[in-house]
Structures are given as structure tokens and as C-alpha cells.
Automatic annotation (TrEMBL):
InterPro entries assigned: Acyl_CoA_acyltransferase (IPR016181), GNAT_dom (IPR000182)
This protein's record includes keyword Electron transport: no
Stretches assigned to the N-acetyltransferase domain: 1-130
GO terms of molecular function: acyltransferase activity, transferring groups other than amino-acyl groups
Family annotation (Pfam families): Acetyltransf_1
Keywords assigned by UniProt, alphabetized: Transferase
Protein name, as recorded: AAC(3)-I family aminoglycoside 3-N-acetyltransferase
Length: 130
């Protein structure tokens, strides 16, 4: 996992009140050990929305305990019952841990693609500052 910075309180509150964001967490002994965030995407080609998994993280000491798979299963069940068309996620080809994780879940399809990004500010990887 890369460097993680806590968001500013105003930004965090705004995100948590976004009706197009799904957040699922796992706790152990009242401690947050895993989280999944997904964005709800309305589609022009379907009346059913899609869900895009933006992030799934499990603390290292809690990995290999099926927590990530349970979060994905929870998301898939939620989206299925709410009438979503699909749930999809991207994993970088060289991130073998993520690729192997998603391949170990009951997926419907795997597609190889190239990802393009348009950045509007540069972030210093050493300190996370813009």
C-alpha cells in the first residue's frame, strides 16, 4: 500500500454524505481492520447503475483471513439486491497481490485494459504535498 493521508475534516464529511459512495468496513476488537469504498455510477446506456470499487484495503496483520473476500461478497450482495447492473474493479497488472486476490473471488469476467490518467496537479511522492 502507498502512503495514506487522513483527509481534512470538511472533505471527509462531504465524502461520507455522498449518496453515490458505498463504504463497507470490517472491525476486530473495535478496531478498523479493513475498508472498501465503491462509487455508484449512473449509466446512459442502462437504467441500472454500476458500482466501481475504488479502494479495498486490509491491515497486513489481518490479511489472508478472508476479510477482503467478505467485503467484496457484501458489496456484490448489496448491489445485486439494489438492482445494479455490475460491480467492477481495476487492478494494475504488476500488482500481483491485488490481481490474484480478485481472481480468487467469484468474478464474471476479466478484461485486460490500459489505463490513462490526466493529472491537474503534481504530488510529491516523498511527502505527499502538491
Amino acid at each position: 500500500m502507498g502512503i495514506f493521508f487522513l483527509p481534512e475534516p470538511v472533505a471527509f464529511t462531504k465524502v461520507l454524505h455522498n449518496p453515490y459512495l458505498i463504504v463497507i468496513i470490517a472491525r476486530a476488537n473495535k478496531k478498523l481492520v479493513s475498508s472498501l469504498t465503491a462509487h455508484v455510477l449512473d449509466r446512459y446506456d442502462s437504467e441500472k447503475p454500476s458500482a466501481y470499487v475504488y479502494d479495498l484495503a486490509v491491515l497486513t496483520s489481518f490479511q489472508q483471513k478472508r476479510i477482503g473476500k467478505k467485503l467484496m461478497a457484501t458489496l456484490n450482495e448489496y448491489c445485486s439486491t439494489k438492482g445494479f447492473q455490475e460491480v467492477f474493479v481495476q487492478a494494475e497488472t504488476n500488482d500481483l497481490q491485488a490481481v490474484n486476490f480478485y481472481r480468487s473471488t467469484p468474478l464474471s469476467n476479466e478484461l485486460q485494459a490500459t489505463h490513462f490518467t490526466y493529472l491537474f496537479s503534481k504530488i510529491n511522492p516523498e511527502n505527499g504535498e502538491i
